[in-house]
Amino acid sequence: MPSYTAPTKDLQFVLHDVLGIAQADIPGYDELDRDTTAAILEEAGKISEQVLAPLNPVGDEQGCTLENGVVRTPEGFKDAYDQMRAGGWMGLDADPEFGGQGMPYVMNCATGEMFVSANMAFNMYHGLTHGAYATIHTHGSEDLKATYLPNMVEGRWSGTMNLTEPQCGTDLGLIRTKAEPQDDGSYRITGSKIWISAGEHDLSENIIHLVLAKIPGGPEGVKGISLFIVPKFMVKDDGSLGDRNAVSCGGLEKKMGIHGNATCVMNYDGATGFLVGEAHKGMRAMFTMMNEARLGVGLQGYAQGAVAYENALGFARERLQGRDVTGAKNPDGPADPIIVHPDVRRNLMMQKSFVEGARAFCLWGATLIDTAHRKQDAEAEGLISLLTPVIKGFLTDKGFETTVLAQQTLGGSGFTREWGLEQFVRDARITMIYEGTNGVQSLDLVGRKLPADGGKAIMAFFELVKTFCKDNADDPVLGDDFIAPLKAASKDLQAAGMYFMAEGMKSPNNALSGSYDFLHLFGHVCLGLMWARIAKAAQARLDAGDGDTDFLNAKIATGRFYMARQLPATALHLTRIQSGGDTVMALDATSF
Amino acid sequence: MPSYTAPTKDLQFVLHDVLGIAQADIPGYDELDRDTTAAILEEAGKISEQVLAPLNPVGDEQGCTLENGVVRTPEGFKDAYDQMRAGGWMGLDADPEFGGQGMPYVMNCATGEMFVSANMAFNMYHGLTHGAYATIHTHGSEDLKATYLPNMVEGRWSGTMNLTEPQCGTDLGLIRTKAEPQDDGSYRITGSKIWISAGEHDLSENIIHLVLAKIPGGPEGVKGISLFIVPKFMVKDDGSLGDRNAVSCGGLEKKMGIHGNATCVMNYDGATGFLVGEAHKGMRAMFTMMNEARLGVGLQGYAQGAVAYENALGFARERLQGRDVTGAKNPDGPADPIIVHPDVRRNLMMQKSFVEGARAFCLWGATLIDTAHRKQDAEAEGLISLLTPVIKGFLTDKGFETTVLAQQTLGGSGFTREWGLEQFVRDARITMIYEGTNGVQSLDLVGRKLPADGGKAIMAFFELVKTFCKDNADDPVLGDDFIAPLKAASKDLQAAGMYFMAEGMKSPNNALSGSYDFLHLFGHVCLGLMWARIAKAAQARLDAGDGDTDFLNAKIATGRFYMARQLPATALHLTRIQSGGDTVMALDATSF
What is the ipTM of this complex? Predict the structure, then answer.
């Protein structure tokens, strides 16, 4: 069985040394001193290690079962769910008005990484509730909020998001689910939704479905979509549960991974629904929640990479095969541990340098969300809007790649169920697909986010990189090893941006053929910036003669690896982008 | 359920137009005219499409079961096996002296691609028999050959390779299985082997295990390993089956993919074995078979990519989502097929340009094996020895990547079992691991193959590329789009070779830290060369006004994509190689 050790030390380092949260001028951050965050992370780490992680292979092996309309989750999930509820983890950053603890979102992410590494399929049950909570909180009427939020914040009720239908995934304009207005102000919802995570299960007392549907007579396409709450059980005026609503689970999807999470076909047979926000403005309501949801998926990607890396490292230290070419390191044993071999090292360093850089990137993103929400800061809002597709797309592509690399470290053992690596690969794979495939993320980035507000956000990003480079160009630790490569990479990103500006109007295919490479180019620059900031923070602690020298030196060494071996990928991405769309679009659809 | 259409047309094009096999001066190739190979490919294609492919999801779903020592294969496997036997496919390239058809190995590969694309787990049963056959054929005594080969060639008996033990995978010097000499000249084999593909099953009447073991008193480490035949049932003098030998299946491995193939723990409890070749020379006997076995795994890698691509393409043509940015292509429908979108195109072209280039590369390798074996050609032997780790490592890494890309084309559907893409991903994953992990391939390449014979083989490869470039530099089709990028890539490969020469002696870690990138750099140059040759062949047919214009033009267009978008990766690999081993090896094993 795979192991899991919560990375609380590294999370503390990122939160305090790299991001300096306790000193940040963001409402609520002043309470996040080192001791407070340490206590929270320790507790979250404990439940992750002791309760969630042991259930991860169980959930994979047993999966969910549907019998007579009832979905049974794997053994132990209900108990774990109750423990998570009792610990208050489900309402960590929720509004105190509805029973939440009101913590900043960054703490939700820092603890969330551990929950996801330990058991991604399990964590999705309350993760989706959080998304539904946030949507209702932002767009629902006072009445809806009062009716639904307290129980959702507490985890007594859970939530779902119902978008996809068989004929429509990305293109939501094709939705057919109908919502007919009733005399009492409610709606009658009829239609079928697919791929609904946590659509039906036995963990919570009620399930609050958020459903996209069309009110007959409304505008065509995406402009005619509205958002509805459809509870599994109707809620009586006194808050107690009433009749079963006409919504049911019609089937469970068999899938590659996240077996512990029930992926449901949901049938709405004239179910009673309640409009959230304005009629026909459902897409807007869904999209305001997207930054957070997509950041959460990016987090899932690197969190799977993180636990996979931990297990690869453990294996590489224990497994004895061959001898160090520079001389035996374990002369009394039959062979040396494989961590002595350069190619095993290369593989481990690829994993480590991604995971730790990604952790910083994701948590930085979370602080931007806090800044945007808690300070109504438009610049932070613009920046996180721009970075969201990068966080989602890059961290899930590379997170998946990291699980594959980790699996490779184990050789044949990596392919067997027993060691658990193959589950991380299968589970991580979905993160590249849901909440918008990574191809869709790249279109969002290039087609929408980049040109938004006249390119204000990307210019702010470049300014940020430029300032950092200028401030640290002469630093003896940062200068040559970090700042020089970061500048080169950032120049590649600018050149790609220029290419899109020049080509975008006259040939959209030229720009869009480069969108995926642009997303990766951007991701590398972000991780390069993160590693430069990490190295600076580590050196500051070393200079202060404070902290774990070995840990801090390893940070700088790992950063050097990223800058030397991973960041240069920006040049390849730029070459591809600049090669344009001709070779991509040359064939007729019939000539493939 | 996924579809499979045998790519007979493209195989014919590669065999005849690109490789010119009918005109090649290799014994046996004169019989391979277009009509003959077409007939063979059609037949192999038919059984692949109609018999093997429908069983692929069945094998994945049912897997193998072990009850009372007996392994049951999935429903339909036995019948398919009998059909493959009846068709003579198992002895296609086997020695006619033992009942084979004596065809060149290249035809074994061309038909094999289809068998593997259709059902990789199934194909391993007779694939392993082929490996065991070849080993006995080359190293066994006349007596052993007469006893075992005819039934193996016919498929009545199957074969296995037993190398791995719990404490030893790559490092075979750690083997513990014992072989004690008996008075009758046989040996008593005792030990346990793991991960034995097709170690026990219900498809054949007898199973012939090839087992690595140590004769007590022999040299230490790999120099004391001998190779033995251990039949499941003893063979009587009249050729009929006798007593059950003391070998049994102790368990089946649960694994990520290839569920239809039984991966066994094999226990040898004083089983009777017969020495193959000389005592203590077992490693040599195994290694002579490695080129072929590893090429076969490279083939598995791209063959999984090929079938995955076919299904991605089919989906992209059918699935309606969104509109072409340059104007609706399906104005009467609710949306355009997703193949109109540039990023979907990019993804499909990545798949297509890899699969078709890999097909040519692998079959070219097979002709080199034929040249080496059938003409005793030392230069061809040297070249294929050098290219083998590249074929194995590059084509499986990229083959797996291609299945992942194809899965991505399907979005959410790619993650579900129903569409079958996720099975291709899971099945392809093993190819990067078995027959030596790809990391081990890269060490073989840089540490052994590159410096062998004073670098004779790599110099021959460079000469070959140089001559091709010189001959075609002024060609209007090839010059700018193919020759120029091929020259640049080849220069990167040379620079990497120079780096290893300069660093290899003084710092082995510097060289070995770059081995994996070198393998990929080399693979790209090979596929670049293949695409230049493919384009040349296509243009020649076009100039002759002969053949399917659309097909031939698509070849040139796909080649241009490879040269513009994939080949430039060589520069990144060179940068990484030249960054040396310092950042890779900086951390203590305890500081990770």
Answer: 0.97
Going by C-alpha positions, the residue among A540, A163, A565 that lies closest to residue B579 is A565
**What is the enclosing helix (H) or strand (E) of A110?**
helix A105-118
A389 CB near a chain B CB, below 8 Å? no
Active-site residue, selected from the candidate residues B154, B292, B422, B435: B435
What is residue A266's three-state secondary structure?
A: strand
The predicted-structure confidence for A29-86, as pLDDT tens digits, reads as follows 999 999 999 999 999 999 999 999 999 999 999 999 999 999 999 999 999 999 999 9
**Bridge partners (DSSP) listed for residue B274:** B229
Contact between chains at A408 and B432 (C-beta distance less than 8 A): yes
Residue A585: its chain B contacts at CB < 8 A?
342, 345
Strand positions, DSSP E, A185-237:
187-197, 206-214, 225-231, 233-235
Helix H or strand E segment including B179: strand B178-181
Nearest CA among B327, B78, B68 for reference residue B205: B78
Query: Do A255 and B417 touch, CB atoms closer than 8 A?
Result: yes
Q: Does the annotation count B292 as an active-site position?
A: no
Tokens of B166: 């719990």
> Residues of B with CB below 8 A from A347's CB?
439, 516
Between β-strands A241-244 and B65-67, what pairing exists: parallel, antiparallel or unpaired?
Answer: unpaired
Separation CA A579–CA A571 (nearest Å)? 12
End-to-end CA distance of chain B: 44
Query: How far apart, in Å, are the Cα atoms of B430 and each of B118, B296, B522?
Result: 16, 13, 22
CA B481 remoteness from chain centre: 30
Three-class SS of residue A348?
A: helix
At A567, list the tokens: 């960041």
**Nearest residue, CB atoms, A509 vs list B170, B326, B557:** B326
In this structure, the strands spanning B263-276 and B187-197 are antiparallel
* C-alpha dist (Å) from residue A183 to A235, B51, B215: 18, 59, 89
Q: Are A132 and A211 in contact (CB under 8 A)?
A: no
Q: For the whole prediction, is pTM greater than 0.95?
A: yes
Say how many residues make up chain B. 592
Q: Helix H segments across B215-339?
A: 282-288, 290-318
d(CA A16, CA A110): 12
For B434-471, the pLDDT digits (tens) are 999 999 999 999 999 999 999 999 999 999 999 999 99
Angle at which helices B120-139 and B421-429 cross, to 10°: 30
